[in-house]
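Quick one, T. Sequence first:
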Amino acid sequence: MEALNRALFLHINGGDATPPWLVNTAIGIAEGLIYLIPVLLAALWLWGGQARRRLAVKACLVTLLALGANQVIGLVWMHPRPFMVSLGHAWLGHAAESSFPSDHATVFAGVGLTLLFGGATRLAGAVLATGAAVAWARVFLGVHFPLDMAGAVMAAWAAHAVALPLWKGAGEPLVRQFERLYRALLARPIAAGWVRP
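Structure tokens:
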């Protein structure tokens, strides 16, 4: 499996002849698109109905559980990044820490799968497609292996399965608590009609 992982990495990773515009584009994708996730979740909360607000909170829960699992995996099993084993080209600086699973890909997978299973298929497709672009960019730039991305999807999938029973018992009360806090903090914008009550 590791041999396949390395072979796939070398196939995707940018080589010596990579033009600067492609490296810069990949860096923008790898580092910038992650900020679309909090914007999306905020938009779902501020201008979405009840169902969208539930999905936003559930997506946060799933993603946080998955990221927590990533930390445990990294502590239990240290898998070096490509540049740590002098493999391929590193076009992006990164701390020398465990690569598996990818946190960036986990965020996109956690939110995307939650939206998909929650019935928001178009939004889910957009999130997952953007996540695939980020996954490609981070392998292309030499900071991750392809299987780090597969591990991220698995972590998000498992987190969603774990979150389901928790959500059944605590989801609605949690959303109501957030709504109370939101209405207290944003009373003026709500009264002005800028965001949904």
